[in-house]
Amino acid sequence: MNTLHVNVVTPDGAAYEGEARMVIAKSVTGEIGILPKHIPMVTPLDISILKLRHEDGGRTLIALSGGFMEVRPDTVTILAETAEMADKIDYDRASAAKVRAERRLQDTKLSDIEFRRAELALKKAINRLSIREMKD
Fold it and tell me: How far apart are CA 106 and CA 120, in angstroms?
């Protein structure tokens, strides 16, 4: 069996543990595909969708809010702020968060830090909502 053991961990604990034929993640420098026997590396991850392709042809989608990925020849470990499985996302809540962030960004009196926080909140909400199209 030519698979990778994948662990996705958040401050709240394990979000996912299982086997995958391929791991596709978005680092801060671009998308990267990991196959078994990949050279060891560590890379920071962007707010994005983690895609796990399985031996049976299926796939698992996980919304990540950034973090780090450590790759070893037989294991991929992802440490993320948050990680949400596609079937666990509350799309109504994500949509409401998107609307709140968009309204916040229209406020001309925001400090630089407040503006950056609103931008990140918008990016996270859009990321969570984007899984819906990928699932179908």
Answer: 14
